[in-house]
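Class prep. Protein, please:
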Amino acid sequence: MCASALLVCVDVVHCSSQPQKKLINSVDSCVDEAVCGLVRANGGLSLLKGHRVVLRSDLENLRGKVALLSGGGSGHEPAHGGYVGAGMLSAAVAGGVFASPPPASILAAILSLYNAGASGVLLIVKNYTGDRLNFGLAAEQARNHGVAVDMVIVAEDCAFDRPSKAGRRGLCGTVLIHKLAGALAQEGCSLDQIVSKVTEVLKGIGTLGVSLSPCSVPGCLPSFVLPPGDMELGLGKGSERERKGRWVVKTMLDHMTNPDSQSHLPLKSGALIKNRGVEVARVMSGSFMTSLEMTGVSLTLMKANQETLRLFDAKTSAPAWPNLSSVCVTGRSYITDPPATSTRPQEDTYTEGPLSPVMRQVLQMICSTLLDKQEELNSLDRAAGDGDCGNTHAQAAKVIQEWLQDHVIPGCPGQLLSVLARLVQEKMGGSSGALYSLFLTAAAGHVTETQSNAAAWASAVHAGTQAMRRYGGADPGDRTMVRDLLCHFHSTFHALQNSEYTKTTLGAEETRNLTAKAGRASYIAAERITLPDPGAVAVAAILRAVVEVLEAQK
């Protein structure tokens, strides 16, 4: 057993390209519609009429148990409404965007839980002035109604070395308190017992965030500005130049565990967690408490013992809580060995033959041609694809060039085609890699060292083309690689002459006038596609290289 166990929560926040754009109906109604949408999408939730309060739909199951209530400003979804459910929160109150909820709604939520038969209500509140005031006022009012109410303040932010009088903020660690307190309440613990246990746990929780971009409240400008390439380490800590992820994580951990900081989380010094004598018991990675469209990540660490882990692993019906493994992360074997037998050909057993020199020349010419056309193919692909057609073909060319340096060319053409099929399958990637590998694999069985005349190659090309059509779903005329050359080429393969290549080139050029019916381009409006298909151009270039080498042999 390591010196201590740790639970790690990585809260990932994503960003849109333009912070001012929001997919909402109106600024005034966006919060109400978001809350209503959450409830209507989840059968275990209900909405308290007249308030932005999300309740468990089975309030009758709270009878005799402690109810949990949390909340805060909207814009941090899935917090807090997503954590309402058996084993977590009983209710959540939403304020306006980044604004504390009003006391009247908080009180209405407390009374709803109390009237359902709850023995008491625990308020889990993040350490912000507005939240403390409004939840505190509602708590006092609820006590006047005879409700047993207590409040736990979550303040686990590790950003500031010397926190102000306002104290440390409550961040994503709040979600962990929801879970632990919810499990305790589900088991029937008393209000005092729950408060005592989570208060102790809070001493071992720390959070630090990094933002790569600002966010903007609906109808407003971005909340702050970051120069290009900068990131903000903890709100108010100042910006740093953006670096590799490993450096960012190390910087966050070093700051969070710096003993000179009053906000630090005590852990042993060292590089990363596994080198600090700490056992990582659980890991959560996802979006748990966001800030609208702000890009960034927060890291939450929680010291854990077996009791803490038991509560953490307890079941909950809250819709936003992930389905996590209960296996300890540290020390777990996570690599599975492949099967003992391999389907890879024994390339070191190949022997050269009469055709080996010319096949080497063909491959060298193909690779050189594809590398020369890399940017041209990328440019064509940007019009109707991902803009990487040239890159994927260049990657295949480089892999083949590397293979040529260390291997002999087998005398059997079919064996060479099998090798090329494996190389493009493993290294080329994308749909192109799969299509080329299909073609080469199907063609390989039709040409041998003793049977490699024009008829055999025509049969091989036909078999490869049919395999691409069978599994790729494309036919001639669909503006894909099938139409893009191969159907043109195999029909008159017998005469490998420049006139045949001219037909192939025309076939590629004609794709500019076809409507895409398969492949990536089929998702693009036809009027936006005015250039030849990049896959067609690539195959035309490959066949041209083949013809040039063979012509030179005459």
Summary: The CA atoms of residues 53 and 93 lie 5 Å apart.
